[in-house]
Amino acid sequence: MGQATDTLREAVFRANMELAGSGLVMGTFGNVSGVDREADLMMIKPSGVPYDDLTPAHMVPVSLASGEVVDSDLRPSSDTPTHLELYRAFGCGGIVHTHSEHATTLAQAGLPVRCMGTTHADHFRGDVPVTRPLTRAEVEGDYERNTGLVVVETFREAGVSPDEVAAVLVANHGPFTWGHDAHQAVENARILEYLARMEIRVRLVAPDARCPDVLLVDKHYLRKHGRGAYYGQK
Fold this sequence. Notes:
By secondary structure, the chain is α+β, with helices and mostly antiparallel strands. 41% of the residues lie in helices and 12% in strands. It has a single domain (3-222), classed as L-fuculose-1-phosphate Aldolase (3-Layer(aba) Sandwich). The chain has helices at residues 3-20, 80-89, 101-109, 118-121, 136-140, 143-158, 182-205, 214-222; strands at 31-36, 41-44, 60-63, 94-97, 167-170, 174-179. The chain has a 6-stranded antiparallel beta sheet, sandwiched between helices. A hairpin with a 3-residue loop joins β5 and β6 (174-179).
């Protein structure tokens, strides 16, 4: 399928291995995908294959336009339709789904990961939102695709930029994160879990704690992201 496809396959495999070693997944839970928009191709972990058994050859290519598997006998992750909807709506290059403990706890409680301080603001410019629950028709219909659509709906209706908040909690389900590639999406999954753990503790020790002023949130986000960023080395 070409050198570019082989490169994507290797990158997505490595990102899945990184996720497996992160402590964010157990069993066959979770998946990582990456996309080559020029080739109109998404590469994703196969469904139900243990991480210890994975090789680059197991990664499943899927047409970004049609959702059809391309040149593979393996079934892609059951979350493939969700990934496809996020790729079609957002400009990301990699997506991660986990059932990490603290982020999933908040998703099950229907609570966002609030931006309560600068640690959060360094990575996400505001709260990580939680979607509305899916309707009966959405669950009984094209469930995985509707999961992606409700994520897109959540960001559009709230006016949240998926570039500035690269994470979401799907109500009663779990987190999705994304990034410019699969590796960054995994890193954002790590960060989200850390922030979710802190958020639960803040809710316990100080239920009435106030969110910081938006000026402070913007300062910390923008000093690390965007044209005027000055954090780190050139």
